[in-house]
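idk why but the lab printer keeps eating my pages so im just putting this in chat instead. protein + heme C:
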Amino acid sequence: MKIITLFATLLLLNTSSVLAGEGGDLYKQSCAQCHGAHREGGVGPSLLKRPWVKVNGKKDSLQRFISEGLPNTGMPAWKNVLNPKQIAAIAEYLLQPEPAAQAASTKEAPADTYPELKKFRLPVGFSISVYSDQLENARGMAVTASGIVFVGSRKVGKIYAVINSGKDSVPPKVVTVATGLDSPIGLTLLNGSLYVAEMTRVIRFDDIEKTYEKSPQLHVVKDDFPKDKWHGEKIIKAGPDGKLYIPIGAPCNVCDKEDAPHSKIYRMNPDGSGFEIYARGIRNSVGFAWHPVTREMWFTDNGRDEMGDNMPSDKLNYAPKPGMHFGFPYCAGGVVEDPEFHKNRRCEEFAEPAAKLGPHVASLGLAYNEGTQFPAQYKNQLFIAEHGSWNRTQKIGYRVALITLHNNKVVSDTVFVDGFLQDEKVIGRPVDIAFLPDGSMLISDDFGGRIYRVSYSEKTKP
Ligand code: HEC
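predcted complex ->
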């Protein structure tokens, strides 16, 4: 009965509002109510996957089917509502290949759902897949020992939990843990709680593995951060000393905030007490990691803009002890006195970068590989997500770099995953790196709303 009433309403709507237009627009006006805005189905069946049940994929028989409908099934006849040209346009539209985003909403992911993966390049034996594509704005990640991946976001203000289905062919389940947050890009696990850094406060959800599906209660840990929006988004990571580390970025492209709370990294106790400066002279760090053996801190810092395409370099910094100064805003990229802000201070006064990662690559999250899935030479090595440049003439970054260390010195900086930029087209923008308990690597991507997974297998070697 419902379908019939709906159909009557539709007839009215259609006779008055159908304008000659593209098949896609006509579909939205006449068909979407039953077959879904993206052809995913509703009252009527999904029109995404062919072969269809009641009609074959040839244009003329599809046009005939749309004209005549299927009596007594709820599929209306359209010949008295739409003219042949309009029906032909809709048929044309339905026969187009599915756009990727629509295919993504179907449950199972056939091998060719992500043809762009074919152009990714990784070292021999490694492969990449899409772990989940249901994570709008995916940013920071934190993985529990049981393999639940918590994921932060930006403007959508959500925290997600991604739970492995146990089968490679079935995508993991995605649960929204919290909504309405203010750019919750950073998160970390400590003592069973999930800590989240929003724009101006740190919050906590307790006993998260038991509560993530039940709208867990939010506790405010600290809410007196500066209110600046520029570089105001914050990561947060629990250090090996049981403290929470958090940056306050410079609220500008370049400015001297030596005597203000900005351009520093802080640490504090899990309850928000004991808030203290850990490191100074940092423009905007969006990645911290501690070496698995030495337990010393490493972090990325993004260089200033407006010094041209090739200056200054983003940095990997090494901060084994508190109180170090990394040179911002006086020394750019660790090598040149800043043209406007040097105030006669010399680069030699400050901690040297451990590695110069390239201009405008936007190095964000980083992680050490502690697992055993990757071959032995990758053990305890460092991987860095390069979000990619936004303002450089020729795009740069858009990859995951492998940094090899020997005695705390960087000996090489090579490309580990390439393919997030294909023929100048952005496929994804890597944000953070984490590892699942099985040792495979996850890469979050806030452009595609995805998490990629990199696995190693002897079998895939030629
Ligand atoms: C009032 C709801 C409704 C509307 C509006 C509607 N359909 Fe349908 N459609 C159905 C139903 C229900 C079926 C399934 C009929 C069956 O299987 O018995 C169907 C089946 C179909 C099928 C066959 C699918 C298959 O797997 O065989 C096609 C193609 C189709 N519709 C196209 C359209 C187009 C194009 C429009 C817009 C011009 C449209 N439909 C509008 C309800 C609707």
